[in-house]
Amino acid sequence: MKVVKFGGSSLATGAQLEKVFDIVAQDPKRRAVVVSAPGKRHTADTKVTDLLIACAERYLSNGEAPELVEEIVGRYADIALEVGLGNEVIGLIRSDLLRLLQSDKQSPERFIDAIKASGEDNNAKLVAAYFRHRGVEAHYVNPKDAGLFVTSEPGNAQVLPESYDNLFQLRQEPGIIVFPGFFGFNEEGEVITFSRSGSDITGSILANGLKAELYENFTDVDAVYTVNPSIVPHPKEIRELTYREMRELSYAGFSVFHDEALIPAFRTNIPVQIKNTNNPSAEGTRVVTKRDNTNGPVVGIASDSGFCSIYISKYLMNREIGFGRRVLQILEDDGLTYEHIPSGIDDMTIILRQNQMDDTIENRVIKRLKDELDADEVTVEHNIALVMVVGEAMRHNVGTTARAAKALSDARVNIEMINQGSSEVSMMFGVKEAQEKQAVRALYQEFFAKVIV
Amino acid sequence: MKVVKFGGSSLATGAQLEKVFDIVAQDPKRRAVVVSAPGKRHTADTKVTDLLIACAERYLSNGEAPELVEEIVGRYADIALEVGLGNEVIGLIRSDLLRLLQSDKQSPERFIDAIKASGEDNNAKLVAAYFRHRGVEAHYVNPKDAGLFVTSEPGNAQVLPESYDNLFQLRQEPGIIVFPGFFGFNEEGEVITFSRSGSDITGSILANGLKAELYENFTDVDAVYTVNPSIVPHPKEIRELTYREMRELSYAGFSVFHDEALIPAFRTNIPVQIKNTNNPSAEGTRVVTKRDNTNGPVVGIASDSGFCSIYISKYLMNREIGFGRRVLQILEDDGLTYEHIPSGIDDMTIILRQNQMDDTIENRVIKRLKDELDADEVTVEHNIALVMVVGEAMRHNVGTTARAAKALSDARVNIEMINQGSSEVSMMFGVKEAQEKQAVRALYQEFFAKVIV
Asked: Where would I find the ACT domain in this sequence (chains A, B) (predicted)?
């Protein structure tokens, strides 16, 4: 049995829906389909999820938004019309949405979550109807009936462990099940969404619960690339990579696959296959527990910007028990999370995402670090990028660091920071944002351009 | 005015004392002399300080130790005899020691501190007497009279700020002042010692207080070497280095100069000149605030062993506010200090000195990390060495990291960890202890063997 997940762009139009049907129909093992809400049909388009959020907000401020409701229902109706589906399912979708918009608004967060989630929920009904229209046994499954229970954190739900056993029961269902992505139910029976792009998470949870042999994630790219194509044109594709490698790449800017979504599949060793709905014959990229190393130590290079560093120096700092802990406490008091803490003998640097701090927070943190820790110097540097070189084989390869550092040096990139030694599968370089692309290109050149595939 | 400090081996015999006199007499600016207790006369010898500790411990256990008292007094007497000094000062030394040994033993720590400190105190009296014997105006100064006040931490005294102004008054004294190293007085008038080798600290405090133009530190090596001579035979000498460079080298195994001792001199920009009592015409090594870069980016390479690493992994660790702080709190609860915390996305590693942990502490810490933080994995690796490459010019030199990493890679040294980016003057590599010497030699070869001086 395979779980197949389709993203919003794969379900934006009737033509796309037909591709989806063909893909599922082609392999009888594809028995569980997880769907997102209809996405953008073209660059300037609006995703159904965003229309739903706008609509929910209008209702919350005591307004109504009949034109938004019609636009949303119209998106489903357009798809239905395009594929020759009758109006029955569209009637269901409209009444479901109107019913939800009239529901309790005591908790605005919960209300928005319920409206947002209807995008996926109603799309699953539409997709199931179309599959049946094409003569295939298929039916929509409601996550509540299926027992997908989650914690009560709107926009950040975490699956509860009993869900897996509940979902296993779905194996008994005949035909193809069509399951809405992006949300589950808390113990009070309320809709709670996962973090954004959470349909990937639903697919992974379902693959785990159903004990699937494969989790196929259909999106709109042929594969995961070794580097961001907007930095290096036409980069090599990654055929196979491990969960750990994927997780490290996702962290630093690879947005193909939601990083939380790997966990349920990873826990049960279910491979994840990333494929292109618009080019299903392309090989795609496979995420696995263990892989053979073929093309050198590095599998991918990622980068992300928008970091800053707080530098703290104090003579004989390393003799003060509790110094580091007190620094982190001061950050925590302002709700700040840090990424890395490179340290010298008498100094330490904290790397964190700068969007967490406005001027007020920054000044308060600096003042507290100076006053409470009696630091000799505290300075903040903005606009730092982190460049990550990822590959399982790196730890067996003594020369990788040297090659990376030399490539950066030859490209005249100044290394502000190196963090290597905790993760066995990655090495991280801090550079100034102005040199980020230069750094990524130099590393790509070193580790990929020379490789014969 | 220059402050001149002589270590124990420079004052172990009459012949050494004559060299000391010649050195001081040679430059009329050398007006403040700081002395250690007499050190070893040969490899198998015992330092006077160690005899004093043994003696104090015997008295504490309600015994007496006349033979130890005579051995200690004998050391001073031998020196006096050798240089033709009368017996008067030896009589003073004996009665002073006997008086101290009869003093209050309510606090054993304070008692030991007072006895230990007498080694320097009485040697200062002897040295002053000898200088006068040679026809030079010189006198012993008692740190209490001079106002050298410190905190009440036996064996770890910290100078109190008012001391500097007090010591400035010594400029009024005629002739040469001879000042005992290693201790000061707390506000109750009790002797409190600095940490071991603390005479360097006294010299630095005195240089600061007296607003000296130079602090000369005479020891038994010609210079600070670029690398440990027991790892690389006949290494290059360092002519000039900055305080920061010296501090980083001292940390990782360079024991020429006590690292705490740099602070008072550093705060007032007084250069520190390290010279050899037994070869005073050798240039020595100068520690300064700022230096010109001459021979490449690296000034020295140091290493130290006996570290271990605690590896902690937990999926999505970096989203948990307070995770790192709680890790450090658990270490702090057992009084553990850490050196570095390299981190990945879902893991962090804590590098610490392993002599802080016995099996009981190690197991307790691991258990708490697993239980309280719900970590997926906690493992400890022992026997790690840290190799430090030090040089002010490194931060302006993009290629230094690449050269260092390549040198290690060519020597087949596996880099377990890199810590670079907080300190601007050093770069640290973690390697297995078994590869420590190999690593140091490879780096020396890369940064020094190729340089033409």
From this structure: 389-453
Task: Give percent of chain A with pLDDT exceeding 70.
Answer: 96
Please state the rounded mean pLDDT for residues A92-101.
96
Is A285 annotated to bind ligand?
A: no
B311, B210: one domain: no
Write the pLDDT tens digit of every residue in B127-172: 999 999 999 999 999 999 999 999 999 888 999 999 999 999 999 9
Residue A400, token pair as written in the block:
């990788």
Write down the pLDDT at residue B450: 67
Q: Using the CB atoms, write b or e for A123-149: b if 16+ within 10 Å.
A: bbbbbbbbbbbbeeebbbbebeebbbb
Q: How far apart are CA A319 and CA B206, in angstroms?
A: 24
Q: Which of B220, B242, B272 is the last residue of a domain?
A: B220
The strands making up A2-6's β-sheet, listed across from edge to edge, are A138-140, A176-180, A30-35, A2-6, A214-219, A272-276, A285-288, A240-242
A16 vs A229, more confident: A16
pLDDT digits (tens, 9 = 90+) for A309-350: 999 988 778 778 889 899 999 999 999 988 888 887 788 899
Half-sphere exposure (Cβ direction) of A253: Cα atoms closer than 13 Å:
25
Q: How far is CA B441 from the centre of its chain?
A: 24
Beta bridge partners of B138: B176
With a cut of 50, list the residues of chain B below it in pLDDT: 452-453
Question: Does A271 reside within a domain?
Answer: no
Q: How far apart are CA B259 and CA B257, in angstroms?
A: 6
B316: in domain: yes
Answer yes or no: do B44 and B151 share one domain.
Answer: yes
Q: Which domain holds residue B365?
A: 300-449
| Rounded (10°) angle between helices B66-82 and B48-60 | 160
Report DSSP state, residue B181: -
Same domain, A213 and A306: no
A393 and chain B in contact, CB less than 8 A: no
One domain, residues B186 and B40: yes
Tokens at A78, concatenated? 């357009």
The answer on B166 and B309 residing in a single domain is no
Which domain-ending residue is among B169, B194, B220?
B220
CB B204 within 8 A of CB B243: no
Beta bridge pairs of residue B427 = B389
Judgement on whether residues B39 and B135 belong to the same structural domain of the protein:
yes
Residue A113 near residue A151 (C-beta atoms within 8 A): no
Instruction: Give the total residue count for chain B.
Output: 453
Q: Which of A261, A194, A161, A263 is nearest to B376 (CA)?
A: A263
Q: CA triplet B401, B413, A416: central angle to 5 degrees?
A: 20
pLDDT tens track for A55-91: 999 999 978 889 999 999 999 999 999 999 988 999 9
Query: Which residues of chain A neighbour B321 with C-beta distances below 8 Å?
Result: 332, 335-337
**Which residue of B158, B345, B351 is the best one to mutate when testing the A interface, meaning the one whose CB has the most A CBs within 10 A?**
B345
Residues of B in contact with A427 (CB under 8 A): 418
Render pLDDT for B329-338 as a digit per residue (tens, 0 to 9). Answer: 999 999 998 8
Terminal-residue alpha carbon distance, chain B: 32
Q: Is the dihedral of CA B238, B243, B244, B246 positive or negative?
A: positive
The DSSP element (H or E) to which B98 belongs, if any, is helix B88-101
Q: What is the pLDDT of residues B171-209, one digit of tens each?
A: 999 999 999 999 999 999 999 999 877 899 999 999 999
Which among B313, B325, B397 is the top mutation candidate for probing chain A, defined by the most A β-carbons within 10 Å of its own β-carbon? B325
Tell me, yes or no, whether A327 lies in a domain. yes
Residue of B260, B340, B398 lying closest to A316 (CB–CB) = B260
Task: State the CATH number of the domain containing residue B6.
Answer: 3.40.1160.10
Average pLDDT over residues A189-201: 90
- Residue B21 inside a domain? The answer is yes
Q: What's the CATH number where B343 sits?
A: 3.30.2130.10
Helix (H) or strand (E) holding B68: helix B66-82
